Each structure stands twice: as C-alpha cells, then as structure tokens.
Amino acid sequence: MRIGILGTGHVGKALAAAWARAGHDVVIGSRRPDDRELLTELRELTAAGVRIDGSAGAAAHADVLVNATPGTASVALLTTIGAPALAGKVILDVGVGFLEDGTLSHPLVSLGEEIQRAFPEAHVVKTLCTIDRKVMVAPDSLEGPATVFLSGEDAAAKKTVRGLVTDLGWSDDALIDLGGIATARGQEHFALLFIGIAEATGTYEFGVRVVLPTGGGSGLDH
Amino acid sequence: MRIGILGTGHVGKALAAAWARAGHDVVIGSRRPDDRELLTELRELTAAGVRIDGSAGAAAHADVLVNATPGTASVALLTTIGAPALAGKVILDVGVGFLEDGTLSHPLVSLGEEIQRAFPEAHVVKTLCTIDRKVMVAPDSLEGPATVFLSGEDAAAKKTVRGLVTDLGWSDDALIDLGGIATARGQEHFALLFIGIAEATGTYEFGVRVVLPTGGGSGLDH
Fold first, then answer.
1. Is the minimum CB–CB distance between A151 and chain B shorter than 8 Å?
2. Largest CA distance in chain B
3. Which of A64, A117, A167, A210 could form a disulfide with A22 if both were Cys (CB 3.0 to 4.6 A apart)?
C-alpha cells in the first residue's frame, strides 16, 4: 500500500519504519524535505527504502495519509495541501494536540472531528493515539494483550486502517471499532489519563486492555 | 468505618449495599429522607442495616463521605451541607457530570478538583468513576483483573479510600495512585471513551486494565 506520513517526529518515524518493514511503499512528508539535518536523522529510514518528499508530495503519493504532526498544527498543515488533493483519501489520524499548560487543544471536540469537518471528502480514521509510539509498533512488548480503538465514518477506510494496524503486529481482535468520528473524543481525551498512568508507573510504554464481563453483561438498556 | 453516601441513585445504592455487607456503618443521605417512595425503594438496604437521613445528617455521621450525586449537582449539594461540616472529612468522589448534549460538565478541569477547591479543608479522593456501578462492587465479574485509579492530595485519605475499595472486592494491586487531585481529570475524561466502548461492546459492565511493558519500559526521560 502507498502510505504518506506527515510528521518527522518520533511517531512518524516509528510508523514509517514499521510499515516499510511490512512491505508498504512509504513516503515521509516534511515542510523541509531537503534539510540536511533531517536527511541525516532519517538515514536509517531512507536506507530501508522510505522516501522523503514535501507534504504535498507525500499526500499525492498516498492511498493512506497518516497525520503524525502535533495536533495543534495539523489542520493548518493539511490546509496547505488542500482539500482537492485530500478528497477520497484515507487520513489515518494519530494526532493529539496539547497546549503549553498540558490541557488538550481541542477540549470540547476532537482533532479527528476537526480534520473530518475541514476536509469532508477525505475519510478520517482516528486510531493509535492511546498508546506510545514504541508500543504502537511492538504490541508484544507488553505483559499481555492491549486494545487499540478505531473511530471514523467510512467502513472501507476503517477496514484499510484495521489492516495497517495489524501490519504493526496487533491482532485483529485487539481492535475495537468505536463508531463514527465523534467517538475520536474518547480516544483523544484518554490522553489525560494516559499521562497520569505514565507518571504513576514511570513509563509511557503501556497499553490498556478492555476487560469484558464473564457472562457478557447486561445490555445498555439495563 | 462510618460511611455517609450522598446520592440515592444506582451508584449510591450499590456502594451502600456492598459496604454494609463488608461490615461498615452506612448512612445514605437524601434531600427527602422521609419520602415514602424512597423508603420503599431502599427497603432492602434498610433491612441490611443501612440508615437514611438528610444530606447534613449523613455528612455528620461520616468519617468518609461518598459523593455519588450527579456531577452537575454535586457542588451545590455539598454547599448546602457547608464547609465547616466537611472540614477534615474524606470525600470519596465518584461523580462525573454530563450535560444534556453528552459532553462533560467540567470539560476543562474536573469535578474532583472543583470540590477540593470549594472545600479546601476536606480531603477529596477521586476514584471508581471509570467503571459501572455493577463492576464497582463485583470486580470478579470480569474476565480478568481490571484497574481502578486514585487521585487526591492527602496520603492518609487515599489510604483510607484504598481500604474501602478493596472492601468492594478489588485487590490492592488493582489500584493505581495517579497523584494529586488534578489527575482526576484523566479519570473523569475517560468517561468519553467509556461511553464509546459501551456502545461498541453492548454493555457498561467492563473494566480497563493497564498492561505494563515486559521489561519495565524506558523511563519518562526517554
């Protein structure tokens, strides 16, 4: 699959390496694709076959465009690429925006919804934002199975993203489809509990597992 | 232990029954303690030794006062009891406030913090708000161990609350102490993901388990 990744931080790099390893055709998009320091920093990735291009070039390449930019900057960056270039594409959004005081930059909605609203012809799928980038690409590094969530409007786009998440090593039954893109709120707001758990346990490298009732539990009407 | 419970809804009743069963001296506080319908509704509890009183009476009785009222109404109700009557008491806060549109009533902070700020001489401990009332009192109903969180400023109060949570059947190592009362934000905002998981799985009766890295993981500086 042709994957474009926006964001050259830890998350973008980890995902690029993992998906290239899984045989995908990966282009990382940067606002400064010719920057010498960036090229040095990414040389392991380019040695593994990942290419570097501008943001628009990565988007043009992509069947699936991954948003791994800081959540505070994501919509502005996608706007420079433009709605026509994003129409019909799957946007796999892992971003969460934080303000300097540690609160969420989208406290009343979610970044995922904001991207979907700004680019209504793209198919936004929110996922992977409840775990650290090391765990994202190494689910077996945990003491037991954890859960990954999906939110998005388009069933075909979610199926594509589900496949890409399993290519990172997650088993298909580790994924819970929460529903439409509005459910991205739950995934993003979990960031506050994530930080609390990280402070308490001393590591970002954990997951959470949804533990279901033995007998299936009562239905939602009870 | 002398426990006062504010709130005669499903959560208050479940906790009252479980703590009475564990041998505690429980008084439920209501704004209408003589209401005949309420007394009928609570007759199983009163048969089990739980007493009904006004909100102020339940607070006066309590070493630990449990806030199981709707989060939108909690501060106003506690204000009718008054800061002097709450000074020095442990307030075990399980409340989460929702507005009619399904968003949190305290989206930028948390109810736990708001109660602590309103009653600085009380010792607020936020806990149990990430699980359904049935799971609260029956952790063994789940397919495996789940996690419960604690947030609060006062170490002694957290120790007391930890004991009361284990009296509900939770093992001590199921509890993660997140830190100060500001970390209640993470617990309360999890409500959004909780609702998404409930819709996806068809039941409220689940927990989440924090799954740690096999090797302990990198520290937070990495």
1. yes
2. 61
3. A167
Query: Does residue B189 belong to the interface with chain A, where contact is any CB pair within 8 Å?
Result: yes
pTM, entire model? 0.96
Between chains, do B134 and A176 touch, taking CB under 8 Å as contact? no
Q: Which is nearest to B18 in space by CA: B151, B95, B97, B128?
A: B128
Q: Which residues pair with A26 in a beta bridge?
A: A3
B123-127 and B148-152 beta bridge pairing: antiparallel
Q: What is the pLDDT of residues B145-202, one digit of tens each?
A: 999 999 999 999 999 999 999 999 999 999 999 999 999 999 999 999 999 999 999 9
Residues of B in contact with A208 (CB under 8 A): 147, 208-211
| Residue of A120, A142, A122 whose CA lies nearest to A131 | A142
Largest Cα–Cα distance in chain A? 61
- Smallest CA-to-CA distance from B8 within B60, B73, B61 is with B73
Neighbours of A216 (CB within 10 A): 11
- The answer to whether B153 touches B124, Cβ cutoff 8 Å, is yes
Phi and psi at A65, nearest 5°, equal -105, 125
The burial of A176, by beta-carbon neighbours within 10 Å (0-12 exposed, 13-18 middle, 19 or more buried), is given as middle
Q: Helices marked H in chain B — which ranges?
A: 10-21, 36-41, 43-47, 55-61, 74-81, 83-86, 111-118, 133-136, 155-167, 184-201
The conformation of residue A118, written as its DSSP 8-state character, comes to H
SS3 B96: coil
CB atoms within 10 A of CB A3: 26
- What are the boundaries of each domain within chain B? 2-201
B148: nearest Cα among B124, B167, B172? B172
Q: Say yes or no to pLDDT of B15 above 70.
A: yes
Q: Inform me whether the C-beta atom of residue A216 falls under 8 Å from chain B C-beta atoms.
A: yes
CB contact under 8 A, A203 and B192: no
ipTM of the complex: 0.95
Answer yes or no: are the C-beta atoms of A16 and A28 closer than 8 Å. Answer: yes
| Angstrom distance (rounded) from CA A84 to CA A71 | 22
CATH number for A2-201: choose from 3.30.70.1450, 3.40.50.720, 1.10.460.10, 3.40.1550.10.
3.40.50.720
Q: How far from B14 is each of B47, B165, B175, CA to CA, in Å?
A: 14, 13, 20
Residue B129, both tokens: 């708000």
The reply to whether B142 touches chain A by the CB within 8 Å rule is yes
Residues recorded for chain A: 222
Q: Are B95 and B69 in contact (CB under 8 A)?
A: yes
